[in-house]
């Protein structure tokens, strides 16, 4: 790491922050701050969705999967595409049926304020844990950089710095700044992955590809694993991945917020479907990066390279092997992409706090001025809160990508189940949905904690968590709903009144 790399990193971070703030304009309303005035082009939203769901986790985590294993993670991309198609034509139309700021406003419209608040609070807690891992993902390359300069800062100190910088960035610009910076960051770090492959080819040639084929590392479809507990199983990746995508892109405010910022429902549908294709291509690029690094380092294990985490392999290559200036540019892209993803999370967390929690607990509606003030204070609070889970997960030795997806999957099933349950069940009432939702989350949390911290082995692959949650939600909610008579939704006066009270929004 040379002085020119540090100058490139500093200049790039300043330039991207300036770009985001310049494009965001002055935010004077809740709709502008959280939805960008619903005037963002579909292609920008598409790339922002991809950057948000992957970013630093993809850049440093996915190469490790092929470095230590094979490219079977690409199977998940097929499931992701299938799940996004379902979201586009089954769930998005309901979000665009009225002026909604969050995904959970639909639950408020269907079941009432209590269900919307329950889902919103659960989203806040889960997103906090998952994004704490994202903060850690952002800290990993920065730690490698600083150690190369002789500075040995702890992950805790680095996460504090990143959280503070991200708070300042998101506090001012809102979702518009976040989306446009996402576009720039995604293009940069994908170009960085291609650049890494080119450097390896020019340094050691292409022999590593033949070695990878001989070693079975190019195996794409895994049909031999147990489809229930095998995390690399094709069945788990396709079906479980599809349901996971339905939950993450249909019920997670982090993604839905972007889709609601499109100019129309048709553009939002286009953005979500194309994003599935783009993310699969991105997976392929970084899996090839892992194979290239496996050849470059002559099949050495991370421990043999002197690394404390498997996820430090790609950052180590960037620092050691890339030419001066280029290594600084790629590292800047990774850091900025990580912070843009975190700022996306802050925007989603603050919007859900305002709309799904504060606005529903108040007797009087929030004005635009009050909503903006609460949203910005929520941005500060959630940014500082990221530090705790990042510290808790800092010593985890497994894949940081799988860890983040597993944590998110704990609540995804309950959220998706509540949405679908509300759509297909005419008997269901708020209490039925709330109880079923809580039970589904508890079941997935039990499996995650037991597998991770008690028994130390996988009972249920993380891809199945959302489907398991949906099944539990339908089973529990369906049994509870038998207490009520089956009536047509449109002719139930009490439900109509509840829908009206639960669907009120704080925008004009």
What are the SSEs and their pairings?
Blueprint: H1 3-24, H2 30-35, H3 42-53, H4 55-68, H5 75-95, H6 105-111, H7 113-148, H8 155-204, H9 207-214, H10 234-250, H11 253-259, H12 265-296, H13 313-321, H14 326-361, H15 368-385, H16 387-392, H17 400-424, H18 430-454, H19 465-481, H20 493-502
Helix pairs in contact: 1-8, 1-14, 3-8, 3-11, 3-12, 4-7, 4-12, 4-14, 5-10, 5-12, 6-7, 6-17, 6-20, 7-8, 7-13, 7-14, 7-17, 7-18, 8-12, 8-14, 8-15, 9-12, 10-17, 11-14, 13-14, 14-15, 17-18, 17-19, 18-19
How would you describe this protein?
This protein has helices at residues 3-24, 30-35, 42-53, 55-68, 75-95, 105-111, 113-148, 155-204, 207-214, 234-250, 253-259, 265-296, 313-321, 326-361, 368-385, 387-392, 400-424, 430-454, 465-481, 493-502. The model is unreliable at 489-508 (pLDDT under 50). The chain is an all-alpha fold and 508 residues long.
